[in-house]
Write a structure and sequence with these properties.
Arc Repressor Mutant, subunit A; 8-stranded antiparallel sheet; alpha+beta; Multidrug-efflux Transporter 1 Regulator Bmrr, Chain A; DNA-binding; globular
């Protein structure tokens, strides 16, 4: 959260977090101010003011953006779902209204967005063109992909494994600014309660949004501490669960500026090896504090749930 949001009472943050989770779970239904405010146990007027103060968006703008982003994610990962189906699923009156809203957001219509995504993440495409430019760009793309695959092969250990259900004490973080402070607040809360003392106490981060479809200032994340110890929620601290799932797991020892490259490489490895991402959210589990590493590196496990 931003410094402005840190001045908001923690109980407000806790209730807005419940509303955010409810919205994301029900984007394919008709969401109203009254129904969402009821989840947060506020009057519509009070909820609307708080929601905008914390998320920096009105409720309607947030729902519209998340609907478009959810549709974009489905376009990328589920080629069998048509644009018409997405238009109906997310409450648009027609294909043309959905296409217009999508293009206003991403600059291209849904069909072109899907085609561009395939070009970025698969080697399987037509390379014929009327001139040499497309072939040249494609060859450059393949070279970049091959280099990234080679990098991830050399810098990680990748396995497929069943991940058990995991429980976390957590804080919701919106946007990349303030992530370190969110971790620090969680640690300050957990330390006097003895939650940092067990062997299972590891920091984690769940990505509810994808940087491929959501701006970095609006990406929603859960900053969490793995624990099976009982605890009482308080203010912005809430309970979160990572469901049991089958995952691609990449084990890395990387500098902080290598996270984007590691995630990109892991998703490319997933596609190249024929796996399909599941509905569950990707997440990270940290095995050390990179500030205590002699080379400033993080030992981190990255998880992609798969079908």
């Amino acid at each position: 959260m931003t410094s402005e949001e840190n001045r908001i009472h923690p109980e407000y943050l806790h209730r807005i977090n419940k509303a955010l989770a409810f919205i994301d779970q029900n984007l394919d239904t008709h969401l109203t101010l009254e129904s969402v405010a009821n989840i947060a146990c506020y009057s519509p007027y009070h909820f609307h003011r708080l929601f905008k103060a914390i998320t920096r968006e009105t409720l309607n703008a947030y729902i519209a953006r998340r609907s478009i982003e959810k549709a974009a994610s489905i376009l990328m990962h589920k080629k069998e779902v048509s644009v018409s189906e997405l238009s109906l699923q997310y409450g648009f009156s027609s294909n043309s209204s959905f296409t217009r809203a999508f293009k206003n957001f991403y600059g291209v219509p849904p069909t072109e967005f899907r085609k561009k995504h395939v070009d970025r993440h698969s080697k399987i495409r037509q390379t014929e063109s009327k001139n040499g430019q497309e072939n040249h760009l494609f060859e450059k793309y393949i070279c970049n992909i091959d280099n990234l695959i080679q990098w991830i092969t050399m810098n990680s250990n990748i396995e497929i494994k069943e991940t058990p259900e995991l429980h976390l004490a957590s804080i919701t973080q919106i946007g990349v600014n303030g992530i370190e402070q969110a971790f620090e607040r969680l640690i300050r809360w957990a330390t006097p309660r003895g939650l940092m003392n067990s062997n299972e106490a590891k920091m984690a981060r769940i990505f509810h949004d994808s940087f491929k479809v959501t701006g970095p200032d609006k990406v929603r994340m859960t900053i969490g501490l793995l624990t099976n110890a009982p605890f009482k929620t308080a203010g912005e601290i809430h309970k979160a669960t990572i469901e049991k799932s089958k995952c691609i797991v990449g084990h890395f020892e990387i500098a902080p500026d290598g996270f984007e490259k590691a995630w990109s490489g892991l998703f490319i490895w997933m596609n190249e090896n024929g796996y399909i991402k599941a509905e569950e959210h990707p997440f990270e589990i940290y095995q050390n504090d990179f500030r205590e590493h002699p080379e400033g590196k993080a030992m981190v496990d990255m998880y992609i749930p798969i079908e």
